[in-house]
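#structure-requests
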Amino acid sequence: MIHRRFLLAGLAALSLATPVLAHSYKAGEIEIGHPWSRAAPVGVTGAGYLTLTNKGATADRLLSARADIARAVEIHTASLEGGVMRMRPVEAIEIAAGAEVALAPGGFHIMLIGLKQPLVQGNRVPLTLVFEKAGEVQVELAVEAAGARGGGHQHH
């Protein structure tokens, strides 16, 4: 009877952990954690966020991204200048050996310019990331609520 309870508890824990594991990706030595976006209507600019962890011994760079859902996709950074948040495109994002880089609101992010379809909460949107050494990998952005800060990842 006790063994059965442990087995059932273990299966329940695995069922909760599986969605989190299912929303992680790997390209070469780069681990991509919890890609997500916020809900947005057609025609506006959306954004993609994720975490890049370099498990390798040499640096790599995120060079570009692409998605059929947007007219254009660019890598940007945001910074506060004189009390005003400014966004600027960047050529690439360096991921040093052993380092983690977060693409998050208020910092690095992927701009989905001119959405051809809405980003609907609860859906997933394909996005291809292109790395200098690790190559290409397709991930899915989990679309969260319009005002999300990325905390909903445990549900994906």
